[in-house]
Design brief:
The strands form two sheets. Strands 1-2-3-4-7 form a five-stranded antiparallel sheet. It has a two-stranded antiparallel sheet with strand order 5-6. The protein starts with a strand and ends in a 24-residue tail after the last helix. The protein is globular and about 50 Å long. By secondary structure, it is α+β, with helices and mostly antiparallel strands. The protein contains five helices and seven strands; from the N terminus they run ββββαβαβααβα. β1 and β2 form a beta hairpin.
Length: about 240
């Protein structure tokens, strides 16, 4: 069993780069990096690496409670996630999911509120979950280590203090689209892409995406991730 996680905080005001690591004796191993905006009190993105052996991840590890740390002064983040109905509520949506790592001790490091963003549960449990599962399967089947960035864009607002009765958009309004959808070129991604109830989703070319979402970290791109290897003996 690997030891407990440790958070290292390197301030680059007004944003903080947080690194969650595992300490094994005198060595430290990265779990995930998180870019946190301490002015708006929100995480811009997380970065981690899928290992090619993700199909053998540890199952049944006890699920811990979420940890607030010191990043939300005078706010009880946990109390903000109230649940008034079975389906229409904001879930604690992971940027980096616990199942993205092999060991249970790594899973624990994902249960910090800086690694969480509000997600409608109907989306969190549907297309978002399908996306996460598809990427894990892709890494496992192709025996690849994948560098993954997960983030949010903008701040969602409600029309008034009473909130909303229906969280779904009524149509696939172009105001919500930030790029030309290239989903049809990525055959390994399995989700109900155009379902409004499950979370209308799209895929972007990285350069076009970056022209709108400027907080995306810099990295070189040679093309879309479209290669598929059919592996009959893979775990996922």
């Amino acid at each position: 069993m690997l030891p407990a996680d440790l958070a290292v905080n390197v301030m680059t005001a007004p944003k903080a780069t947080l690194r969650f690591v595992l300490q094994v004796e005198s060595d430290f191993y990265k779990i995930t990096d998180i870019c946190f905006d301490d002015t708006q009190l929100k995480t811009l993105y997380s970065n981690f690496t899928f290992v090619s052996g993700i199909g053998g991840y540890q199952v049944g590890f006890p699920r811990p409670s979420f940890i607030q740390d010191d990043f939300y002064p005078e706010i009880s983040v946990d109390n903000l996630y109230t649940r008034n109905s079975a389906d229409s509520y904001l879930a604690r949506g992971h940027y980096t999911a616990k199942a993205d790592f092999v060991y249970g001790s790594q899973h624990r490091a994902t249960f910090h509120f800086v690694n969480i963003s509000p997600q409608w549960q109907t989306f969190n449990g549907a297309n978002w979950n399908a996306l996460e599962m598809s990427v894990r399967t892709y890494a496992d089947r192709n025996k690849l280590n994948l560098d993954v960035n997960t983030g949010t864009y903008g701040v969602a607002t409600l029309p008034n203090v009473n909130g909303i009765e229906n969280e779904y958009v009524q149509s696939q309004d172009t105001d919500y689209l930030i790029c030309n959808d290239v989903h049809s070129k990525i055959s390994w991604l399995q989700w109900d892409q155009t379902s409004i109830e499950e979370g209308y989703s799209l895929c972007c070319d990285v350069d076009e995406f970056r022209s709108t979402v400027s907080t995306l970290p810099e990295f070189s791109v040679s093309g879309l991730l479209i290669y598929v290897n059919i592996c009959s003996s893979c775990s996922l």
